[in-house]
Amino acid sequence: MRVLGLVAFVQLLLGVAGLKKALREGRVADVPFAEKRSKKQIEQRHWTDGTALSAPTPMLVIQGIASIVLILGRRPPVFFARLIGVLGAIMAIGYPLEKVWRESLVEPDKQLTPLTLGGFLLALKMAILGWSVGRGRRARTLEQSEVEADADVGGAS
User: Which residue, among 45, 7, 33, 22, has the nearest Cα to 116 in the 3D structure?
Assistant: First the structure.
């Protein structure tokens, strides 16, 4: 789970850099069918709406806490991995909706494209890793051995 924590932490760094850049340049979220915001509103609304280059600030805080738990915890609860998976899935959907994300792919920019494309790819990786923790062959083998151990203990008494 440490790998997931590190991926989420690096993605968080890109999100914070995106937040800083968006606040500096006045880049408001620009997604289809959403109300257009003014550049003045970005400082007030980044808490709820996010920016063109970052998720809403509370999401970034939650991601930071979950990342630290996964990186530093000896046996972190699977809940934090799933939480990172959900955040990653939300962001992986959100990035392509942003006009700036699409524009940065059409006309690459040395400062903007790493934030948008890197953030998207890491968010996608977060979603995949977060939902795969505890699933798969190794997890099933561990579950089966636990069930067999419980059956042996129950049969011995």
Answer: 22
How is 44-96 classified by DSSP, letter by letter?
A: HHTTTT-BTTB--HHHHHHHHHHHHHHHH-SS--HHHHHHHHHHHHHHHHHHH
Nearest to 112, CA basis, from 8, 14, 29, 23: 14
Q: Tokens in use for 6?
A: 């590190």
Residues 6+ apart with CB under 8 A from 69: 5, 76, 77, 80
Mean pLDDT by 10 residues, the chain (157 residues): 95 95 86 73 79 91 97 94 97 92 92 94 97 72 54 58
Q: How far apart are CA 31 and CA 52, in angstroms?
A: 8
